[in-house]
Design a protein that fits this description.
five-stranded parallel β-sheet; alpha/beta; 7 helices; 52% helix
Amino acid sequence: MKLLLHTCCGPCTIYPLGMLRDEGVEVTGFFYRHNIHPYQECLRRQETLQDYALQERLPLIVTPGYELEGFLRKAAFREAQRCRTCYQDRLRATARQALRDGFEAFSSTLLYSRHQQHDLIRATAEAIARETGVAFLYRDFRPGWQAGITASKSLGMYRQPYCGCIYSEKERYCRP
C-alpha cells in the first residue's frame, strides 16, 4: 500500500514510520506547516523532520508557503475548538495531496501522541476520507510513545515543547 503520512514533526514520526514499514506499507511523509507558530519554530521542526527523513530514506512532501493567518482566522473567537479546526486543516490537506498524487490511503502521526484528542482525530480523518474518497488508514501508535521519545533523544533530535499553534505556546509558557 502507498500511504501519505501526515508528519507533525520528526520525533513523532519515528515509531509510526517503523510500525508501518514493518507492515509492508510504502510511506511518504507530508509536513503541513500553516498552524505552527512562530515561524522560526516551524522551520526548526521542518529541518528536524527533513534530516530524519533523509536519514530514513523517507520521501517527504512539505507544504509551500506559510499561511498562519488562515489558521488564525479559523481559530479566532473559537479557541475552545481550535484543535478540531487544526485537525481538519491538516488531515484535509493530507487527503487532498494523497488524492492528487495517487496514494491509496492517508494517516497521521497525530495518532502517536498521548496529548492529542485521539478519538476526534480518528473521527475527523474518517469523515475526510468519505469526503475525498481517499481511504484513511487508522493505527493507534500510542503504545510506542516511550520508544519514540527514547529514540528521538538518542538521535539528538529537536523536541518541541508545545503542540504548535500560538494558543498551545501560550498554554505551555504563560502560567498565571
